[in-house]
Amino acid sequence: MSASELATQVGLLSIVTMWFALVLRARPALRQPHQRGLWLTVLAAAIAITLFQPEIVGRLTHAGVELHTVALTRNLIGVLSAGLVLLFMVDSTRVRRRLRLTVAAGLATVMGALVALDLLQADHPRESVTSVQGPADPAFSYWLILIVAHLVGDAVALVVCWSYSLRTGDRDLVWSLRLFAAGSVLALVFWCGYLWHLYGGTSAMLPHLSLIIGVHGCIRAASLLVPTTTALVRSWNALRVTWRLWPLWRDLVLAVPQVALSSPQRTRLQEVLRPRSPLALQAHRQTIETYDALLDLQRFVQPGAYEEAHRHARRAGVPEHRLADAALAGALGQARRAKLVGAPPSVPRPLPGVEHGSPATLLGIARMWPSMTDALPRHDEPVDAVAPTHRD
Fold first, then answer.
1. For residue 148, how many other CB atoms are within 10 A of its CB?
2. Rama region for 353: left / alpha / beta (φ>0; ψ in -120 to 50; rest)
3. Are 150 and 191 in contact (CB under 8 A)?
4. What is the pLDDT of residues 89-124, one digit of tens each?
5. Do 58 and 67 contact (CB within 8 A), yes or no?
6. Is residue 218 within 8 Å of 255, Cβ to Cβ?
7. Structural contact between residues 71 and 130, judged by C-beta atoms closer than 8 angstroms
8. Distance between CA 205 and CA 136 in Å, rounded?
């Protein structure tokens, strides 16, 4: 694959990724002032990068839009993106209002200067001096202002994002800032390369520059998607806990119904596809209710049940690292059956390793629950009389 083909594919990926991130994050970002600036920055960058792709430019010119108009629009929106980066950085550092006004005035001045220089060069044969990915005007002052504006904005973003990410404890913010800083590094490389291309380089550099700006776009989109990614990871973890814990939770709360806020649904699939509360809350509730039921069932644990279940699991070939969970599952299974048949409770016999209701411990018990729930005999049988169906 040639550099030009790779740049085209990465450019298309960056455009799709950025616009997807913008649409997905539009509603929550625009409602929160500390995310609004980042969203607007990525929006301006997405428009500029879209107008930098040769295929997009070709379609626009084929539709009747002048190449010069596309290039000028791209340049102005690119400078707007750099200015928004500065404004975003100023807002994140909470400096005085005067500095924000200074940045806004500087941005307006730069954009006005580009438009004025373009109008002054109106008598040039634009189509012959402008390439698909080149600046709207070949004048030295025009593209120097254009590139310096980008370099200043990206340099400030790199320094501020990285330094601020070292001081905050918000993991989402840390990742957003560091990804934004990484994107700024690629933007600096791109504009330095673009400056060299305009000053004396060849057109062979453009595919490589397109590749760099495409990767830059993907990283900018990633910085915007950090909160969404975190939310998805949390939802997935909650879904995993709900799914794995469900058989143990259902059986225990049916034996100890007073610990449950609501009764289990008919199947595990219904529990995860039609949750009666947000997944994170449901996973948390099921964890607490499972632990509360476990504490109640400790009054029905038979003497030596844990040790006998441990020996049974070892004979059954349970791996060493799962023996403790299997023993807990076996002892709880016997206690649950004792509670269901109306056996009188006794002094609670605490089971080892469940003092604090660790979710990892409960999930370990749940993993062994199907195979160990009936491993021990009924409460009214001798503890060493293992059920025949479980003999090796």
1. 14
2. left
3. yes
4. 776 555 567 777 888 888 899 999 988 888 877 655
5. no
6. no
7. yes
8. 18
pLDDT of residue 179: 93
CA dist 19 to 43, 171, 225, 231, 304, Å?
A: 8, 24, 11, 20, 63
Looking at residue 383, its pLDDT comes to 44
Gyration radius from the chain CA atoms: 32
DSSP calls for 200-223:
T--GGGHHHHHHHHHHHHHHHHHH
Is-contact 249 363, C-beta < 8 A?
A: no
CB 48 within 8 A of CB 74: yes
At 122-170, the pLDDT tens digits run 655 544 444 566 665 567 788 888 888 889 888 988 988 888 888 888 8
Residue whose entry in the numeric block shows the structure tokens 């200043």: 152
Q: Which residue type sits at 356?
A: H
From the CB of residue 84, how many other CB atoms can be counted at a distance below 10 Å?
A: 23
Q: What is the pLDDT of residue 348?
A: 86
Provide the 3-class DSSP secondary structure of residue 52.
coil
pLDDT at 134: 60
Q: Which amino acid type is present at position 68?
A: H
pLDDT at position 322: 92
Tokens encoding 131: 């390439």
Question: What is the distance in angstroms between the CA of the first residue and the CA of the last residue of the chain?
Answer: 60
CA angle 96, 99, 104 (to 5 degrees): 135
CB proximity list for 153: less than 8 A, separation 6 or greater: 81, 82, 83, 85, 86
Instruction: Looking at the chain, list the stretches that DSSP marks H as alpha helix, in order from N- to C-terminal side.
Output: 3-31, 33-50, 54-62, 67-93, 97-120, 126-129, 140-165, 171-199, 206-255, 268-273, 279-297, 305-315, 323-340, 359-372
State which residues of the chain have pLDDT below 70. 1, 91-96, 122-138, 201-202, 378-392
Q: How far apart are CA 205 and CA 196, in angstroms?
A: 9
